[in-house]
Amino acid sequence: MNDLRHALRTLARSPRLALAVVLSLALGIGTDVTMLGLVDSLLFRPPVHVRDVDRLVDIRLRTYPDYVDLRDQTRSFSGVAGWWAPPRPYAITDGDRVLPVQQMLASASLFPVLGVQPALGRFYTAAEDRPGGPHLAVLGYGLWRRQFAGARDVLGRTLHVAGNLYTIIGVAPEGFTGVALTDVDLFLPITTTKFDAGPAALTSRDYSWVRVVARLAPGVTIPQAQAEAEVVYRRGNPSAAASPVPSWQIAMLGGQPADVHPVMELRRELATGSIPITLWLAGVATAVLLIACANGGGLLLARGVRNRREIAVRAALGASRVQLFGELFLETGILALAGGVLGFLASRWADGLIRRFILTDLAAVASPLDARLVGLAIGVATVTALVSGVWPALRAVRGDLTREIASAARSVSIPHARARRLLLVAQLALAMVLVVGAALFTTSLRNARALDIGMSLDSVLVSDLDLAGAGYTPERAHALIDPITDRLMAVPGVRAVGLSDAGMRPGFITYGYSVPGRDSLPHVANFSAVTPGFFETLGTPIVLGRGFAPADRNARVIIVSAAFARRYWPGDAPIGKCVKLGDRKSPCLQVIGVSHDRHTAPGDTTTLFEAFVPLGSPGEPAGLAKLYPLTSVALRVDGNPTKVAWDAQRVLQEILPDAPSIRVRPAVSLFDRALRAWRLGASLFTVFGAIAVTLALFGVYSVLAYLIAQRGRELAIRIAVGATATDVSRLVFGETVRVTIVGVACGALAAVLLARGVRAFLFGVGPLDPAAYAGAAIGLTVASLAATVVPVRRAVATDPTVALRAE
Questions:
Q1: Is residue 799 part of a domain?
Q2: 562 within 8 A of 535, measured Cβ to Cβ
Q3: How many domains are there within the chain?
Q4: Closest listed residue to residue 296, CA positions, set 419, 423, 169, 206
Q5: Which of 296, 567, 623, 649 is deepest in the core (most CB within 10 A)?
Q6: Contact residues for 12 (Cβ-Cβ < 8 A; gap 6+)
Q7: Is residue 51 part of a domain?
Q8: Same domain, 90 and 205
Q9: 254 and 279 co-located in one domain
Q10: In this structure, are strands 164-171 and 97-101 parallel, antiparallel, or unpaired?
């Protein structure tokens, strides 16, 4: 306790230095804890409220009949459940309120398989989850708190979902999302809800949508379970044994049909686009922590040199070196603890920002405030104390302390000066690495956004409409095509309007088709039903033939993409050819045009085979029209897009008063997820790089200021014998330039070695891009010299008589 009081009194005598060390360590610890917590959430933390996650498996089956076979015909699993999370929010109506919610269709078995209990009420049962069964709903905890104020009398209330009235029977526990990574607002019976949309989803083995999770029976291993699952799958799919599995099916399933994997592998796959870059950024955060440690260590080293005379006096009075070392390290421990507390609080704030603005589709990957995260923070703070405190404490008590008492002048020894220069070099080198990384990722993001994706979206606004979820029939939705188009075209600044049943981004719906005479070729394409203004609005050219006209709504016509035409009619004119949607007995749709190829995302060079029919025409499959009568509106605008967006949003709300909260936004936001890796890398590399540069420059400033203060006698003598202000400035700037050049050079070399590891994340720029390295080197050098200005002014202003008298 005496040592603790002594340490606190010692730190109180240098409040500015203590505050500087605490803030430096807080930045480093906060950055590191944030990213390590995110890595823990993505890779290691099990789903919330799920019991014995090591016995849960994901089975690579995607059709409902395959799920039923596995559920009813296997003994390797103590329970099998099916689930499906729609890719975007649906509309529910509570009284006069229309709410957009994220649903999960889940079999009744999901809850016992995962071992979860409701927070309120009950879950639906297997007897209730059946075709034609009662419409029951379980609220997600967040929706219950957000929209119903946590009212316990919510049970028994009704919600309008997809045109049906659902009765609320329970509330899921807080944070529960099944095994998915996205938030879930509403759990609905999978069989009942899908049956309402059309029985084909429950009977066809060509309709891939459901995911399967199961719990291994006691004593059963994954290989044993997989062997039985494969037998059951081949029994239900006799053709699977006669021919190899198509590559597209393997890509969709993430493996061979009926493969069995630990459920944690599924969660990692769902976050695939985020995990590699997150791991790199965790390494970057550790680099920031090292810079903070070097910064704190440099300040503590300077303080130790200043206090060596006091340390020598205490040693002369009988204090051992071990005791002195312990007291100095205790001071570092106090500073690291304070920095750790501040850093931990900052990490909680930063974690929320990252999930809200950067990893928006992984918002349910929680890092709750629990013993696990607190332990992580304590571990990081402990390592920080060791890294930043041991060396300065050792340097302070090493050597012949008796000479410090005899010394009449305080000066900086060569070993101590070299130690501080080494710490500065390390800080500048690490900062250089991060600035280069920020430049490479920022360039990649800019290049990806500029890529030709078959659409020109710079002046395009979009809005998602969930009319099926709001209870609109296909007839009612199609009757609104002309009113929506006409009203939006009347909005000032709107140049073109396009509507679609499949979203504006390609790849939302896939559908089967056939081309006479081409039966041996693949027969699945991306499908959309669109209005005549669709192609003009999105800036997708018609390269052959013509686009849709209003009269085509009554015709059986189709437009195909250039890739589609090249596949089926190579070297032949596709105009006038026949395409049949669905089975071979369907009537022909005549090809009237060929559109420019589109891509699903910037940076994706995958060839898409697309087919388009007029929205509301006889060529639109009835099943799809019921599921997706009208899902998206796009507008090409002139002038102020923000004002046009507000005006268009008001028009849509007037026409569709019972649709979920309508939001008109820039079309480029459609590709936010595709750009996530580059955006994540660019934003966090930039933030971490800025922190690193700030810490490094603070280190340059503080160490130079301290060196000038310690070399006051030397500078006074130089000025007294005739040194000019220019001479003194050259002396200090020379010190800075030497340290900066070495630091930048070491950082550039480290960046060259490390940049090859991020090659896969870069787009349109090489890992050795000269502009990135030159810009980082010049910027860091200029900033380092700027940090020297204040210490130089103090050196030049030194009064030799005052300085010599003080010595």
A1: yes
A2: no
A3: 3
A4: 423
A5: 296
A6: 18
A7: no
A8: yes
A9: no
A10: unpaired
Tokens at residue 6, please? 């002594």
Q: Does residue 250 carry a pLDDT above 50?
A: no
Residue 255, pLDDT > 60, answer: no
Helix (H) or strand (E) run with residue 500 in it: strand 494-500
> What are the residues whose beta carbons fall under 8 Å from the beta carbon of 570, sequence distance 6 or more?
none
- Asked whether residue 56 is assigned to any structural domain, the reply reads no
Residues 650 and 683 reside in one and the same domain: no
Which residues is 513 bridged to in the sheet? 581
Residues 400, 315: one domain? yes
Please tell me the distance from the alpha carbon of residue 801 to that of residue 807, in angstroms, as a whole number. Answer: 10
Contacts of 729 (CB under 8 A, 6+ apart): 792, 795, 796
The Cα–Cα gap between 698 and 216 comes to: 56
Same domain, 706 and 587: no
Last residue of a domain, one of 657, 685, 704: 657
DSSP structure string for 101-149: E-EEEE-TTHHHHHT---SEE----TTTSSTT---EEEE-HHHHHHHHT
Distances (CA, A) of 695 to 31, 126, 156, 276, 568: 13, 59, 58, 27, 61
- Rounded CA-CA distance 746/756 in Å is 16
pLDDT at 209 over 50: yes
End-to-end CA distance of the chain: 37
Q: Which two tokens stand for residue 215?
A: 């719990």
- Write the CB contacts of 140 (distance below 8 Å, at least 6 apart in sequence): 101, 102, 171, 172, 176, 177, 183, 184, 185, 186, 187
> What is the model's pLDDT at position 237?
80
Scored b (16 or more CB within 10 A) or e, 331-354 reads bbbbbbbbbbebbbebbbebbeeb
| Single-letter amino acid, residue 473 | T
Predicted confidence band of residue 370 (pLDDT cuts 50, 70, 90)? low
* Position with higher pLDDT, 805 vs 87: 87
The string of pLDDT tens digits covering residues 523-564 is 777 888 899 999 999 999 999 999 999 999 889 999 999 999
Contact present, 643 and 480 (Cβ < 8 Å): no
Q: What are 738's two structure tokens?
A: 């030497």
Helices first, then strands: H and E counts in the chain: 29, 23
- Reported as a single tens digit per residue, the pLDDT across 181-199 is 778 999 999 988 776 556 6
Percent of the chain clearing pLDDT 90 (strictly above): 26
User: Could you give phi then psi for residue 106, rounded to 5 degrees?
Assistant: -135, 140
What the block records as the tokens of 2 is 């005496």
185 and 309 co-located in one domain: no
| Chain center to CA of 762 | 16
Same domain, 398 and 365: yes
Any domain includes 466: no
In this structure, the answer to whether residues 423 and 301 fall within a common structural domain is yes
Q: Examine the pLDDT at 246 and tell me if it is beyond 90.
A: no
The DSSP annotation for 145-178 comes to HHHHTT-GGGTT-EEEETTEEEEEEEEPPTT-BT
Rounded to the nearest angstrom, the gap between the alpha carbon of residue 752 and the centroid of all alpha carbons in its chain is 26
Question: What are the residues facing 578 on neighbouring strands?
Answer: 590
How would you classify the pairing of strands 120-121 and 136-139?
unpaired
How far is residue 553's CA from residue 253's CA, in Å, rounded to a whole number?
36
Query: Residue 73: which domain range?
Result: 61-258
